[in-house]
Amino acid sequence: MSAPLLEVRELAVHRGRTPVLDIPSLRVGPGEVLALIGPNGAGKSTLLLTLAALLKPAAGTLAFHGEVLDSEAKRQAYRRRVTMVFQDPLLFDTTVRENIAAGLRLHGVRAEERQQRVEATAAQFGIAELLDRSARHLSGGEAQRTALARAFALRPELLLLDEPFSALDPPTRGGLLEDLGRILADTGTSALLATHDQAEASRLASRLAVMKGGRILQAGDLQQVMNHPDDPFVAAFVGMETLLQCTVTAAVEGVLTLALAGHELIAVGDAEAGDSILVGIRPEHVTLSLQTDKTSSARNQLLGTVTKVIPWGPFHRVELDCGFDLSTWVTPQSLTELALAPGRPVVAAFKATAVHVVRKGHPGGEAAQT
Amino acid sequence: MDLIWEGLRKALELLVGLDPEVLGITLLSLKVSGLATLISVVLGLGAAVVVALNEFPGKRLVIALMNTGMGLPPVVVGLFVTVLLWRNGPFGFLGILYTPAAIILAQAVIATPIIAGLGLAALQHLPPELRLQILSLGATRRQLVWLLLREARLPLLAAVMAGFGGVISEVGASIMVGGNLKGSTRVLTTATVMESSRGNFEVAFALSFILLVLAFSVNALLTHLQQTRRPR
User: Shortest CA distance to A216 belongs to which of A369, A69, A368, A28?
Assistant: First the structure.
């Protein structure tokens, strides 16, 4: 692994006497996009402000390119290589052009280069035609594009994004996410993105850290955390809606047979016969049909009854009773074709690899189902 | 009504005829209140920036005092400044009582809390995260203050207008520390009071009209500054 761009050690932040952040270690590599996800109050913004050297930690060190930021001069110099974008675009009351140029002026970039960089950055973010407009008359998406362009014009080595999309409507957010992902990749800029939306995180980030109560519960490769959460909170937060406590009845070469509410489930994972384990199933991995399909590769096919159908944006969320609660997503088309309505018997199918082992051992504590 | 028309006619006559005495009084008013406002902008905005950007114990008390100061009665200021500048008072050695300098001092005492109080409100009205955003764009402390003042320029100019309006129109302090001495400390308001008490209503009216025009012109200039250089 190459030297990290930013490295945090034993970081602690207090508000008054209350500890609000406790991060033993965190690294961001060059060109890496790390998403911090967690509910409101998890400490995501506090962590970003600390990493931006805008909030002084009570303890711990921040090292940039291996050099510890231990003086105000170093922190000031560091602030010129790292930039933060907030949920509120916080634009200045002037033109879009002057907004994008604002950071460059602060850095003392000469007029000629400033103009060239403003125009190039505006073009990247698709706001070239807005340059002479007043920042007061922009839509939410245009304003956030301007804020991002203002940050990118500085060519920061690390970009700290504090829920920059959460105030935008879904189509605007989608377009901006796509553009930002492309620009981050093109420029090789490292970024930390705080969000409470796991879909947003998975579109931009390659690594994921799940936060709660000022701590990082789990951090790692995006797919690893999404599919192998090692904690029920993380599992629920990355979209693993169905969590089941069950007993391993057989384990042969990594293929597990699980007993649950009179059903037998087949899973893939690391456990031994007799273990009590918590498994998670993502709704998008569950398919519905009217009868069992012997030709399918889905090893788990369970009879169940529809209990609820809830319209959910472009999809419908269908909740089932299979002896335990299970949920899935269907398109309006499937809803009609399968005549899904409460009381309808259906077959829910999912592959053995869709059953993820979240945690081994001790039943109880959390409810078996969430 | 006749009195008003007579006053207007007299005002025009004095203005058009460039009456040297009225001209002197007008220019002195402008100079004294202008300088007092300038001093208040420096002190008042300085105080507003310091209070807005720093957290310290007793901050609320300081803000409450600043806000109380906005309603400081000119006669009370006049009294204190007179006592301080009195021949055997603590600053009597300066020998500035009954000079324009004393009026400038008293008016600055009146306008400073107005500009500080309204200026602080203007700065506190900015989004709290704006300061962090500016710092994260790489601003130094000085650049931060400059950008915050620029962002709050509309309400800040309103604060300056309120300060100027307060002192150009006050009479109590000017008459107490200036003494309304002809050709030396007579300003528009003190002259108006005097002419009115003598029953020279048309001259009093004339001076009042000039005062109104002056106040209007200065505020029009500041409004122009406030509203331009702002993109549509």
Answer: A28
Domain ranges in chain A are 6-234, 240-360
CATH code given to domain A6-234: 3.40.50.300
What pLDDT shows up at residue B74? Answer: 95
Q: What is the ipTM of this complex?
A: 0.82
Per-residue pLDDT tens over the stretch A83-97: 999 999 999 999 999
Residue B231 within a domain = no
Are A216 and A47 in contact by the 8 Å Cβ rule? The answer is no
Angle, CA of B99, B104 and B105, to the nearest 5°:
95
Counting the structural domains of chain B, the total is 1
For the record, the structure tokens of B142 come out as 């000085």
Chain B residues in contact with A107 (beta carbon < 8 A):
138
Decide if B133 touches A, using CB distance below 8 A.
Answer: yes
Distance CA A164, CA A147 (A): 9
Which residues on chain A are in Cβ contact (under 8 Å) with B150?
A: 92
Among A49, A93, A107, the residue with its CB nearest the CB of B138 is: A107
**Greater model confidence, A198 or B131:** B131
Residue A22 contacts residue A67 (beta carbons within 8 Å)? no
Higher pLDDT, B225 or B71: B71
> pLDDT band at residue B232, thresholds of 50, 70 and 90?
low
Q: What is the pLDDT of residues A273-294, one digit of tens each?
A: 888 888 889 888 999 999 888 8
CATH code of residue B133: 1.10.3720.10
For residue B45, is pLDDT > 80? Answer: yes
State whether A90 and B136 contact (CB < 8 Å).
no
Please report which confidence band the pLDDT of residue A369 belongs to, taking 50, 70 and 90 as the band edges: very low
Residues 6 or more apart whose CB falls under 8 angstroms from that of B5 comprise none
Domain A240-360 is of which CATH architecture? Beta Barrel (2.40)
Name the pairing type of β-strands A207-212 and A59-64.
unpaired
Domain with B91, as residue range(s), is 2-226
Share of chain A above pLDDT 90, in %: 63
Q: Would the CA dihedral through B136, B137, B142, B145 be positive or negative? A: negative
User: Residue A88 and residue B127: Cβ atoms within 8 Å?
Assistant: yes
| Interchain proximity B143–A95, CB inside 8 Å | no
Q: What is the DSSP letter of B94?
A: G
Domain annotation covers residue B176: yes
- Using alpha carbons, list the distances in angstroms from residue A369 to A56, A245, A322, A325, B67: 41, 7, 12, 7, 58
